[in-house]
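Write out this protein's structure.
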Amino acid sequence: MRGIVFFTDSQSTRKVTVFDTTLRDGEQTPGISFKFEQKLEIARQLSSIGVHAIEAGFPASSQGERETVRAIVDLGLDSVVCGLARSRKEDVDTCLDCGVDMVHVFIPTSEVQRVHTIRKSPEEVLDITREIVAYVREHCDQCMFSAMDATRTEPEYLISVFRAAAESGATIINVPDTVGVYAPSAMRALVSRIVADVDCPVDVHCHNDFGLAVANTITAVEAGASQMQVTVNGLGERAGNADLAQSVMILETIFGIRTGIDLPRLVETSRLISRYSGIGIPPIQPIVGDNAFSHESGIHSHGVIACAATFEPGIMTPEMVGHRRKLTLGKHVGRHAVRQMLQEVHMNPSDEQLDAIVEKVKFISVKGKRVTDADLYEIAESVMGLETGKKVIQLEDIAIMTGNHVIPTASVKALVNGKEHVFSSTGNGPVDAALKAILGILPARIQLKEFNIEAISGGSDAIGHVTIAVEDEHGHVFDASASGDDIVLSSAEAMINAINLLQRVKGPL
């Protein structure tokens, strides 16, 4: 069932290209600095999912940036590789020396920017625009021109600047909402006018200061923009930029506008950037967040079990973006969800037993404790009088070495499928080292998805409650917990519990 479809026939045949600036504007997020190899891997990933153009960086800013941009060019990607330059010939030359396919030049056009950042008159900005765009086109086939702070620029003057750029050879003009102050209605009017009055393809770059980056981007495309600038996970200056996954999926599903992006790899790409940037994906993040296709409420769970489109968009499924639907446990959980979760592990309680299991789950949730998948199965085993499932891994011993001048190291001895294994690993701390050592023992590819800890008593000997989620190579996620006054041991036990749960549900590792 597709559900309600909003796009028209004319829109359904339209295409819009994606210009990704994660490596440039995204890296300007405070606290983010991608490593050299990470930047190359990000560029490969963006190209492989179908991004039309990648802004690889700002070569004139540093030697390291120049080396990175050259290396990305040398990858021979399918995407257009773009370098950013101020409206200075030396900046353009630096981009050209890196071998980029496109040079992106910009100059401030709003009064506040002209007066306080570049100290140029309106006429001088027009002259510089003509000169720099012409210079780029003498040496490069593709030139993007941006009027920085376009949305705070007097419209008549903005049109004159864009016309000067187009007449001088710009292959695409960019409309930046540099400080994120535009509303969609204003963006529609502005872009419509630019499209009508300037003979050049239009691109849009929106910031998220008021949470309107995606809305403004979509509105600009509706108004005639043929390219949109985005970043993975909405990274960028201050509150960030328009998010790639959200912008792409809105165009693809609601408007029927094609972007050329490999949709089932959106979640994969989001997680890659999250890992490299160190900025987690909020659970409620649209499209890629853990809760995007999760359901706790009994009414919602019952609905999606019968027909997913009841409480999901219908025109977008979890499989479309590389996600998976999940029924979660909490005080709102219903009988249908619990029954299905138990049936997935071949547990079939009677109606009376099911009522007792649901009651216990809700009782625990009301106390403020998160109910994990492992908790559910333990509750069901207790209520149904079943034997505890066989454990694939049993922890025998764990030793930790740490100190002010020692790299935290953990050695783990465990039985895996009845055979003794020993593995050691270093980490950022004793807990990280211990968890990596446990994962190193396993024959299957399993990764830590989530780690949470909370104190459940006071004092220096407080009891800590650790919840861990692990993910297998197929994207299946299972969570479990453990408690104790030794945080390293509790973390290890929670990890072991989660792995055993995964094995129980999915089969031998």
